[in-house]
Amino acid sequence: MKYLFVLCFLFQIYATSANAQSYKYHTVKKGETVFSISQSYSIDEEDIYKYNPGAREGIGLNEKLVIPIDGKATSEKLETSGTPEFIEHTVKKKETLYSLSKEYNVSIDEIKKYNKQLYSKELQMGETVKIPSGSSSESVAMVTKPDSTPVATNKPQEKQITSTREHIVLPKETKYGIARKYGMTVKELQGLNPRVEVLQPGMMIRVGIDVLEDELVIITDERFRFYEVKPQETLYSLSERFGVSQDSLKQLNPALKEGLKFGMVLKVPKNNKDGKEIDDDAYTGKGEDAYTKMNLSESIDNRSTKEIVLMLPYHLDLIDTDSLGTYRNTILNERVVRISLDFYSGVLMAVDKAKSMGISTNLKVYDTRRNENEVANIINANNFNNVDAVIGPLLQKTSEAAAARLESSNIPVINPLSNRSMRGFKNLFQSNPGDELTKKAMLDYFSRNAPGKNVIIIAGGKSFQIKNELNNVLPSARNINPSNNFVSEQELAAMMTGGENWIILESENINLVSSTTSALNRLARNHDVTLLTTNKNSAYESDIVSNNHLGKLKFRYPSVDKEYDTKASEGFIEDYEERFNIEPNKYALRGYDLTMDVLLRLASAEDLYESFEKYPGYTEYYESKFHYMPNAGGGYTNDAIYILQLNEDLTISEANDL
Fold this sequence. Notes:
Blueprint (H helix, E strand, L loop, with lengths): L1 H18 L2 E6 L6 H7 L4 H7 L12 E6 L9 E2 L5 E5 L6 H8 L3 H6 L14 E5 L6 E6 L5 E6 L7 E6 L6 H7 L4 H7 L11 E5 L7 E2 L6 E5 L6 H8 L3 H7 L12 E5 L36 E7 L12 H9 L1 H22 L4 E7 L4 H10 L7 E3 L4 H11 L6 E3 L12 E3 L3 H16 L4 E6 L4 H10 L4 E3 L8 H7 L4 E7 L3 H14 L4 E5 L14 H6 L3 E4 L10 H11 L5 H18 L4 H7 L4 E2 L4 E2 L1 E3 L5 E3 L3 E5 L5 E3 L4
Parallel strand pairs: 13-14, 13-15, 15-16, 16-17, 17-26, 18-19, 18-20, 20-21
Antiparallel strand pairs: 1-2, 1-10, 3-8, 4-5, 6-7, 8-9, 11-12, 22-27, 23-24, 25-26, 27-28
Helix pairs in contact: 2-3, 6-7, 11-20, 12-13
Pfam families: LysM
Protein name: LysM domain-containing protein
InterPro entries: LysM, LysM_dom_sf, Peripla_BP_I
């Protein structure tokens, strides 16, 4: 990546020379005058006054002046403006951010901006939120007619800048570039200059007073462009998006040293590592809507009967014609068959629940026998023309076989459980995010929440790849290299501080996990210690790793599903036990959650594909949540992932530090 910086620097020198245009910010030092500054730069005093009109009335210590090299620069003058007005709204039952945005004609983004807690948690009944008196693009202001009667008129408004100065537009400058210089968002800049549509050199506009510390201002640079930071974006997600390291982004944007902020304008690469221009529209990362919970039961408007096909490997071919004994043995010995039957029980519960909500379902069930040819035979022998969705088959190969056969008809095939990467069929939906996405979710969690904490990374010998990724996300973290799968308490204690200590443990070795958690448990008596990992593997389930230790360490990890709330799901559990004589396990709950999501999406839109456009947020049920994003190679993957915490009383809750 160092080569990128060298190329960038050389290109900047070339661009400055070729265009003969460059500018410097000068911070006024004690005892300096306009005359002394002009002499130090070999320019006339008038050159400074021309682009810094306020300097005629005197300059102050630490004030920033724009110094023209070859006689071109900017100008500054302080003014003040007002503050935004708000309506305080008490949230009622069933109200959502979406419904509030419609009621008050403001964007969801605008509501969140003035209620920061809504970036990290859901809207709560009884909660009071501040609603700005207008949307991000227009707000209602009061003007007076000649007869003094107040009337409403539309007036552009964004977040108000309390102090402003004047800026003379330089050749080649853009709104993004100017916003970046003054630490503003583009919308804020437009709000200060509502009548300015096209920038022209020499034009005087209003800007904020905070000038970034970039000494050299390059107006043109073919290798880079400007990008405005969206809500929920992190340095990690931006580095993934633009294919550069976080260090590279910081080098290109010195303001990032103070932290990433929503609305910042950053200088980013125009092209990816293959030399192709980065297409923002094609980017499949999460937007801010992905963090809004959708309740589709409030949007049911498609009452047609849903045609659902369920494909699972029951191995009915193993049943003897005169006895069920063989099949009972098969159930006991075949884990896949047991999972299929548990999942099927959850599907039946969802179909019944949907029926009580007015959604009729025609469910057809087929046995795939874990065989790709059998899947092809089922599709060839039956009419799939009116099928709304296929749930299953259970495994990767059989799911791909079904998607391949039904791709031309664009019939959705939803794989319920497999976490393996699948081929890119446009109609294939993977409901399990998989290991790579769960890891990325945890890395993003670190990027958001680790700053300000003492982070220590412990990675076993086979975990070198994730160790490198962690150090890229957390450059200030310290590392401990285990010796013979062991970490001593003394070594850990030497790195502890009096604040929050985050220990990230990456290993599948039971001995290393056991020795580390035991040592941390003793240190937690005198230190604030939290244990985290990107991969909660079987080592943490071992009998020699104490759950009590993990609970005391507030163990945090990513997960596709969460532990269901017994109180919230009490009715479901009672109904399930009454029907099947047993408490539902995680596969039964997965069958219910997935089927319920599919049926509600079909009942609130024309088809599954339209539901993703119509409802961009995530849906959530007893144990799972769903937010499907298109894959670059085709198809869709659910990227909704929980970050869970094991508490000291051994209950599990969501870890939310935002």
